[in-house]
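[09:14] KT: can someone run the structure on this one? pasting the chain below
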Amino acid sequence: MPAAPTLRRAVDGVLLLDKPAGITSNAALQTARRLFAARKAGHTGTLDPMASGLLPLTFGEATKFSQMLLNADKVYEAGVKLGIQTDTGDAEGTVLSVQPVAVIETQLRAVLTRFTGEIEQTPPMYSALKRDGKPLYEYARAGIELERAPRRVTITELSLLAFQKDRFTLRVACSKGTYIRSLAMDIGAALGCGAHLDTLRRTRIGDFDLSGSLTLDMIESTAPAQRDTLLAPVDALLKGFPKLELESAAARLILQGQPLRLQKISEDCVRLYGPDRFLGLGQWKEDGRLWPKRLLDSSSLAAPST
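[09:31] RB: done, structure tokens below
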């Protein structure tokens, strides 16, 4: 007999997942969703299958705020193999060339300084960027190389953690849109021997780091009745926005989609709270009033976090 379908339920919150290498972000998401029996789930941006590390996932009402981390700065630990170039720029690609390596640590450190700060970076062909509605990696798989315009990205930290004669490890703190594969290839080109990214682990996104994350095995080993306690509250993704507490009458109006005329406390969005719960995001507009931007469902029972 076929297995009984999994009963999905309403569960709201944020899971800081430590994704293992070797699976896609979507596969990790679906496994986590199954473990929580969640009706609705999403992620805040993907990691390549070869990469491990921090992957915040959202459940239920938290999915409304999944986009909030897309612009956040990120930190990675990246392993770079010298002397070997691949078509994808990482260890999963086909080897294009092998060159001898005669790099010393002082030479590498001097090159790294050239990639710190605001730099121009050309996105790799094996990326999800789209051209005419089709991702670049589909052109690449068909053997088509397209011209890509360089982009400005910011590397705020590029620290050498370890060095061997043909491999080194970096800590990279960078802005959104930075391709660590491109960074590895560019460093290899500057050293004259080529290189590719052979390991990648994301350790931080915005205010979140791996210290608060959980593996899939840790979640599975937790009793199903206790798994919801592993989730951060719905508003965990929004800590960068100012907090505004509303009285009951004002909270009712905002939940009805009505604007409020209040003293402005921010040029951007604000986290809105009623007397006993998180309501969602509000935003002041040109008319000087605070309007609802993205609200929780009125039946949600999301409690405010500290």
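[09:33] KT: thanks! The mean pLDDT is 91.
[09:34] RB: yep, looked fine to me
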